[in-house]
Write a structure and sequence with these properties.
Elements: H1 2-26, E1 39-45, E2 50-55, H2 57-62, H3 64-69, E3 75-82, H4 83-87, H5 93-101, E4 106-113, H6 116-120, E5 124-130, H7 132-144, E6 156-159, E7 165-169, H8 180-190, H9 203-212
Antiparallel strand pairs: 1-2, 1-5, 2-3, 3-4, 4-7, 6-7
């Protein structure tokens, strides 16, 4: 009788040990997710215009069409500007005057970037380290600057001016007091940069504010 009881207890103990081993092997708890960010963004100047170079993730989440148009892009260089002046192959005084005082509309310019150091080589730029909350605010403001079709998608406005790029119809009216650089400054202000969009009407003023605050993240994303 006792030998039979021992056998039963031994089998139960063996089953319990096996169950524990199987459970620990196949049902390991997921490690806690790491906090998102920080993110490195860049302000890029080209003389008359200052744009933003942002990681693509949050932009794609708000504008899925961009992921389809630019597969493989890790970042986007994005700018806002007058439809005539921005898309012109040759800048003239007439186009500048029209943009400031009789703009026919505004556009977004999106450039797909896969190699950030190569893209920035030779450019005037400043790197800023921001947290996830600031990055999400920037992405929302950028996405809200795209005009949308009835289906909610960005509206194509033709090929871009360099690289793998595209223009899209934008919201907002361009004028002498609401320039492309003021738009860039407003996005940076939302991220926490000490900058006044109201007086940031030139590329040098925007880039200067960014360079004074320039800080790279230890782990860029």
């Amino acid at each position: 009788m006792f030998s039979g009881l021992k056998r039963i207890l031994l089998l139960l103990l063996t089953a319990a040990v096996l169950a524990w081993l199987i459970g620990s092997q196949f049902f390991k708890p997921e490690p806690p997710a790491s906090a998102p960010g920080p993110f490195t963004i860049h302000v890029v100047g080209n003389g008359w215009h200052a744009g933003l170079l942002l990681p693509a993730q949050a932009i794609n989440a708000r504008l899925p069409l961009l992921r389809q148009r630019f597969p493989g892009a890790s970042h986007y260089e994005i700018g806002w500007g007058d439809v005539g002046f921005y898309r012109a192959s040759k800048v003239t005084a007439g186009l500048a005057l029209e943009a400031m005082f009789a703009s026919r509309g505004s556009v977004m310019h999106v450039v797909a970037v896969t190699d950030v150091p190569h893209f920035l080589k030779g450019s005037d730029s400043a790197a800023l380290c921001i947290d996830d909350a600031a990055y999400q605010r920037m992405a929302s403001l950028v996405a809200d600057s795209f005009a949308r079709s009835a289906s909610g998608e960005p509206v194509d406005a033709g090929p871009g001016i360099y690289g793998n790029s595209q223009f899209y119809i934008a919201t907002g009216s361009y004028n002498a007091l609401n320039t492309c650089n003021r738009w860039t400054a407003s996005i940076l202000e939302a991220a926490g940069l000490a900058i006044s969009p109201r007086i940031s009407l030139t590329a040098s003023s925007v880039l200067g504010a960014a360079q004074r605050s320039a800080m790279r993240c230890e782990v860029a994303r």
